[in-house]
Amino acid sequence: MNHDLRPKSIEVSNSKGILEIEWSDGHHSEYTLFGLRKNCPCVTCRGGHGSMNTFDRSLFFVEPTQQFQIEDIKQIGNHAIKIFWNDGHNNGMYQWETLRAMCPCTECYPEQE
């Protein structure tokens, strides 16, 4: 992983249910809010430390069973963001590496259907 890789911009559209990132290397990532919330990297959502840094990209392609919205985003140092969700959850620290690794685009995730 390129440790200099970081977002140039992060845009949220609660009405469209997506978060978009333009990366410093020119790559574009688009995440559904449902998929991001369901892939929250906090220890509670992951079910313990043994499942940390695991995620399920298929959640970006399912019909949402719940509508999530982002109320706020705070940058954490130079390596992550903390998302404040409308369901009150805000424990997850989404590191740049994790966000890029879970990118659901066809280039990053060619096995998507």
From TrEMBL:
Gene3D superfamilies: 3.30.2020.30. It comes from the Bacteria. Residues 11-100 form the Gamma-butyrobetaine hydroxylase-like N-terminal domain. InterPro entries: GBBH-like_N, GBBH-like_N_sf. This is DUF971 domain-containing protein. Keywords: Iron, Metal-binding.
